[in-house]
Design goal:
The protein has about 375 residues and is α+β, with helices and mostly antiparallel strands. The chain folds into 2 domains: about 80 residues, no CATH class; about 230 residues, Lipoprotein localisation LolA/LolB/LppX (outer membrane lipoprotein receptor (LolB), chain A, Clam). About 10% of the residues lie in helices and about 30% in strands. The protein is built from 5 helices and 16 strands. The strands form 2 sheets. The chain has a 12-stranded mixed β-sheet, covered by helices on one side. A 4-stranded mixed β-sheet has the order 2-1-4-3, with no helix packed on it. The longest helix is centred in the middle third of the chain and has 16 residues.
C-alpha cells in the first residue's frame, strides 16, 4: 500500500497498537509484540551521502498523548475517581515523522542478480536503477456545501427553535481505547426537559454515578443522589447562558447542548466547510430518516433527521485532531414538543437534605484533541434583549 504524503512531501509513520484511523492506515506500522514496550530500529539500504556524513538527521520520535475520556456527562464532586479508572485503560502510541529526503533509491528494494546469470547482451553495461519519481501530494477533496444538506439542518433547527418546551431521551455512547488497543464503549442516558427561555432539567444515568441537573431561571443545581451531594450557584437568565456558565465554572457539558439553544442552526452551521446529503434510512429511530454529513475544521459529523417530523434521531462525531479517530454517538428518542410542564419540574425535594459542596470545576482529564463543545462557543452567547 503506498504511503500517504503530506503537502511538503514528507510522510508520517504511526507506530502503535491501535489503528490511527482509516485515513492514516497506509502509514501504520504494528509493533512487535503488539502489547507492552517495544524498540524502534531504522534499517536503511544504500543511504545517500547526506545521511552517511551526518548532514541529515532522522526526525525524532514523538509520543502521541493518549486521548482522555470525553466529558459527555455531568462532572462534579467525586466524579474524578471513575474518570481515572476509565483513563487507566488507555494505551499510548507513538508517531514517527520521516522526511522524504531520507528515502533511498529504487535499488534499495531491488533484488541483486544471481552470480551465474548471463547478461542479455554481452557488451551491455549494467543499467543503473531508475530513480523513483517524486510522489505528488495527495489531492485534497473538494469542499462542497450542498444546499440540500444545509436545508435539512436548517429545517431541523427551525423545528426545535419553534418549540416553547420539549422533552426527549439522549443516549450518548463514547469510545475509549482499552489496554489491548480496540476501543471500549461507555454509555450514558439522560432524560431531558426544556422550557424556554429559562428552565432545564437533565436526569442522567449510565456507566458511572447518576447525576441530576436543575435550572429554574435563578439557580442551577447539580445533584449526586448516590453520594447525596448538591452544588448550587446563581445562574444567568437564559438556558444557553447558564449552560455556558456551568461548563466554564464546573465542567458540566451535555452533547445535545446545541439542539436546545435559541438558534441551533447558527451554532451548528458556524464554520461548516463541507456538507452533503447521503440518502434515506428506514432503520434508525424506527422511522424514515434523511442522512447527511457535515464537517468543520474540528469535527466530522453524520446526522439522521426524521423525514416527516424533522427531528434529529442520531449523530456520530469524530474529532479531526484525535489520532485514534474515536467515535462519539448521540441517539435521540421519545421526542415531545410543547408538552405540558409541571410547575415543580425544575427542582427536587431531595436537594434540601443533601450535603452542599462547591459548584466548581473538579480535577478531571482534559478533553480529547481538537474537541470543542459546539454549543458553548462564541455563537452561544445570549442575545441582548
Amino acid at each position: 500500500m503506498p504511503f500517504t504524503y503530506n503537502a511538503d512531501e514528507s510522510f508520517d509513520l504511526y507506530v502503535q497498537v491501535t489503528s490511527p484511523g482509516a485515513y492514516n492506515e497506509s502509514n501504520w506500522l504494528l509493533p512487535t509484540p503488539p502489547s507492552g514496550p517495544f524498540n524502534l530500529t531504522t534499517r536503511i539500504y544504500q543511504p545517500k551521502k547526506e545521511l552517511l556524513d551526518g548532514t541529515y538527521k532522522l526526525p525524532p520520535v514523538t509520543r502521541v498523548p493518549r486521548p482522555p475520556l470525553l466529558q459527555t456527562f455531568c462532572h462534579f464532586a467525586n466524579r474524578s475517581q471513575i474518570l481515572k479508572t476509565l483513563t487507566a485503560l488507555s494505551i499510548a502510541s507513538v508517531v514517527l515523522t520521516v522526511g522524504i529526503f531520507a528515502a533511498t533509491g529504487a535499488a534499495a528494494q531491488a533484488q541483486a542478480p544471481a552470480a551465474d546469470a548471463k547478461p542479455a547482451t554481452p557488451a551491455a553495461k549494467p543499467a543503473k536503477a531508475a530513480k523513483p519519481a517524486a510522489k505528488a501530494p495527495a489531492k485534497a477533496p473538494e469542499m462542497v456545501r450542498e444546499p440540500r444538506a444545509l436545508a435539512l439542518l436548517k429545517g431541523m433547527s427551525e423545528r426545535l427553535a419553534a418549540a416553547k418546551s420539549m422533552s426527549f431521551t439522549s443516549v450518548v455512547t463514547y469510545e475509549h481505547p482499552s489496554l489491548l488497543g480496540p476501543a471500549l464503549a461507555f454509555t450514558t442516558r439522560s432524560e431531558v426537559l426544556v422550557q424556554r427561555p429559562d428552565k432545564l432539567r437533565v436526569l442522567t444515568l449510565g456507566d458511572g454515578p447518576a447525576t441530576e441537573f436543575y435550572y429554574d431561571g435563578k439557580k442551577m443545581m447539580a445533584f449526586a443522589p448516590a453520594e447525596n451531594f448538591v452544588a448550587v450557584a446563581d445562574a444567568p437568565p437564559t438556558i444557553e447562558a447558564t449552560l455556558k456558565t456551568a461548563y466554564n465554572s464546573a465542567a458540566i457539558y451535555y452533547p445535545f447542548t446545541d439542539l436546545i439553544l435559541t438558534d441551533p442552526y447558527a451554532v451548528i452551521a458556524d464554520g461548516v466547510t463541507l456538507a452533503f446529503y447521503i440518502g434515506q434510512s428506514k432503520v434508525v429511530g424506527g422511522t424514515t430518516t434523511e442522512m447527511l454529513a457535515f464537517a468543520t475544521n474540528d469535527v466530522f459529523v453524520q446526522v439522521w433527521i426524521g423525514a416527516e417530523d424533522k427531528l434529529p434521531r442520531k449523530m456520530n462525531a469524530v474529532f479531526r485532531a484525535d489520532p485514534l479517530r474515536l467515535r462519539h454517538q448521540l441517539d435521540l428518542s421519545n421526542w415531545q414538543l410543547d408538552p405540558a410542564v409541571p410547575a415543580d419540574a425544575f427542582s427536587s425535594a431531595k436537594i434540601a437534605s443533601a450535603t452542599p459542596i462547591a459548584f466548581a470545576r473538579p480535577e478531571v482529564p482534559k478533553l480529547p484533541p481538537g474537541f470543542k463543545p459546539i454549543g458553548l462557543g462564541k455563537s452561544a452567547k445570549p442575545k441582548t434583549q
